[in-house]
Design goal:
The chain has helices spanning 10-19, 33-41, 73-88, 102-109, 123-127, 156-159, 176-185, 195-202, 222-227, and strands spanning 2-6, 25-29, 50-53, 93-98, 114-117, 141-144, 165-166, 188-192, 207-211, 230-232. The protein is of the alpha/beta class.
Amino acid sequence: MRRVFLLRAYGDFAIAVQALPTSDQIVASLHLKPLYDALLSLRCISPCSIEFVDFGITGSQLNLFTNKDFLGIDTFCQLSKIKKYTRANPGFSDFVEQSARLGLLNFFSGHSFQALFETGKPVYEAYGLASHALSEKKRNILIFPDARLKKREIPSSVLAQIPGRIVRFGKDYKNFEELIDLVQSADYIYAADSLPLHIAYLCSKPHYILYPDGGKLDFFTPDALASGSYSTFNQFRYV
């Protein structure tokens, strides 16, 4: 039986939780549970059979998958907890989402994880998720400029071109429930390559992706790709 470990960031989780088949056994890091609870309570997803486990992840994802912290002491503590869990719960074919640093994960956890898909492949396509073919109404426009990585945040020069309401984490919303409420209330969303974008797809809200020069399209939604609703910061011109 296939068992899938969800150890990455919130956006990755929002994609995976709607795409993985019910036949999978899902083990997710405990830090992802608040997002799951919010998606469930606001009826964005159907209940899933997920075991949430405390692997010591206090940031946005397993430290091994980051560039900043992957050699820190907390990384080895997290990997030790994963190793302990897999040894205590054998008998599955175990998978993680992407192939990035899979060799290191297997070496330090003493386990044989496989990847659902190769890093660099379009994520939504890899999961078999398709475009919603949404009609676009640009009345109540919300703009989510924040992103986990500073370089992905939408700059003020671009924000000034869009006649919508700018909403920021910590000011306009402080938790996942409030974020989802905002997304559900919008007619159209402009967003950086970040969690609000993936919530927009999940809630079937028309959206436009803004990203830096040289940015990758790996996590772009099928809706944005199908309609051409994306642009770099430098190339963007509001129409």
